[in-house]
Specification:
With about 260 residues, the chain is of the alpha/beta class. It has 2 domains: about 1-160, Rossmann fold, CATH 3.40.50.720; about 170-260, ProC C-terminal domain-like (ProC C-terminal domain-like fold), CATH 1.10.3730. The chain contains 12 helices and 8 strands. Bound molecules: NADP nicotinamide-adenine-dinucleotide phosphate (NAP). One of its GO terms (molecular function) is pyrroline-5-carboxylate reductase activity.
Length: about 260
């Protein structure tokens, strides 16, 4: 049995707890000063009264507080870290590097920086992982296997995290915006709210699943749907004339620039 402890029980912690719940080999526990007990009850896991208690019970601790709480968390954890330095840390703190994590928590610890997206909660997430240079391959494999339970993962150099964060971390909001645009177009053309929503959601979900399961690139799939000179091609032309690629590139660039301000 592996015990995973969470410090912080906000949106990301809850998504990860949902992603891991149901694994009979994993026991989950959480500490969060205000919402910890309520979230634990709602999600059917145990709550602890302190960050120290979570650390001492866990094999892996997920840091899931706002990034500016790292120093406060490190202070709360210091006695527990000294008592049990074997705990592996997985930090999801946005914009906090492995070097900063070591500086706050201790140079001796094994630390993984993880960048999961919100879709881990429905087991269809994406998580970028960065490890310390000297991390044992068995530990890397074990940590990656945990994140693979709720989606796909890649080991990435930390300098790529900004791009990964904009595309995969913020991406669900952008894909949701496109889904809403499809829904609005269906509504404008006389479909009911309920059916417009179903058409848009199922089309986006099914298209992603089709590309992944049939290993098709987006362009391959697009070309399969389009007969040259046909109706889909007429619509696709409008997207291209509106410069969809540039619009999305500008979206990602603005997201990365804002993230950089926070770092
Ligand atoms: N949301 C995402 O899609 C996403 C994606 C990737 C990474 N992240 C990163 O994940 C982290 C958490 O994000 P979030 O969206 O889950 O934030 P959130 O919903 O605001 O939740 C933050 C949680 O941290 C708890 N907390 C605050 N100070 C604490 C402290 N000193 N000790 C223990 N717990 C403390 C809060 O406690 P109470 O509720 O008890 O007050 C709350 O449960 C951030 O660093 C963010 O950059 C988020």
């Amino acid at each position: 049995m592996l015990t995973i402890g969470f410090i912080g029980s906000g949106n990301m912690a809850q998504a990860m707890i949902q992603g891991w719940s149901g694994n009979p080999e994993v026991q989950l526990t959480v500490y969060s000063p205000n919402s910890g007990k309520r979230v634990a009850k709602e999600l059917g896991i145990t709550a602890e009264d302190s960050a120290m208690a979570v650390w001492l019970k866990s094999d892996l601790v997920v840091l899931a507080t706002p990034a500016d709480q790292l120093a406060a968390t490190a202070k709360m954890l210091q006695p527990a870290i000294l008592m049990k330095p074997s705990v592996i840390v997985a930090s999801v703190l946005g914009g906090i590097s492995l070097a900063q994590l070591h500086q706050a928590l201790g140079e001796q610890l094994i630390i993984t920086r993880a960048l999961p997206n919100v879709n881990v909660g429905v087991k269809y997430g994406y998580t970028a992982l960065a490890f310390d240079k000297d991390t044992n391959p068995d530990i890397k494999g074990a940590v990656a296997a945990l994140f693979l339970e709720f989606g796909r993962t890649d080991e990435l150099a930390e300098e790529k995290f900004g791009a990964a964060s904009a595309v995969a971390g913020s991406g669900p909001a952008f894909v949701a915006a496109f889904t809403e645009a499809l829904k609005q177009a269906a509504l404008k053309n006389g479909l009911t709210e309920e059916i417009a929503a179903r058409l848009a959601e199922q089309t986006v979900a099914g298209t992603a699943r089709h590309m992944i399961e049939a290993k098709k690139t987006p362009l391959t799939l697009a070309n399969e749907v389009m007969t040259p000179g046909g109706s889909t091609a007429a619509g696709y032309d409008v997207l291209q004339k509106g410069n969809l690629n540039q619009l999305v590139l500008d979206t990602i660039t603005a997201t990365m620039a804002k993230n950089a301000e926070f770092e």
